[in-house]
Design goal:
With about 170 residues, the protein is α+β, with helices and mostly antiparallel strands. It has helices at about 5-25, 35-45, 45-70, 90-100, 135-155, and strands spanning about 75-80, 85-90, 105-115, 120-130, 155-165. The strands form two sheets. A three-stranded mixed β-sheet has the order 3-4-5, covered by helices on one side.
Amino acid sequence: MNLADRIILTLYTLIMLAISAAVVLVSLGMVGYHNLSIFMDLINGNWAFALGGVVMFLVSLHLLITGIGIGGGSLKLADGAGGKVTVSRRALEHYIEDLAEEIYGIHHTKVVIKLQEEAIGVRINATIEPGINIPEATKDVRDNIKESVKKAIGAEVREVELFVKQIKAKEE
């Protein structure tokens, strides 16, 4: 999930929290029916509330589609008279997790890929062991992923972002 989606999700969650609190307060009788009636009269015919409702609907739809992974779920490698070859997003993510963990000191990886036209963007959340030079490990991870993915599926990896979520020894 990219930064814009996270911001949208945060705002959406806050709005849903306020709506949920209002429903609870009304249902418990802490907010009177009269106050609810005044609010309903306020929004009746008000285009700003209608616009807000449409935006909330579209955000909900976007979050649903993003959450279940509809669209862009696979990378097409070949499509011709002999047939079609695709690789799923999940298969690529698992493969890249394995490639990242081949580098000494990198473990507990979680990979999210962004499929682009004939290229891949990669974000890796990983734990790194103490004493490992992070810039060198990042370069090794980046080089290993770019070379291996190019060799295996022929797709270019344009961007590899390594996010170190924790510096901790590997537990075995």
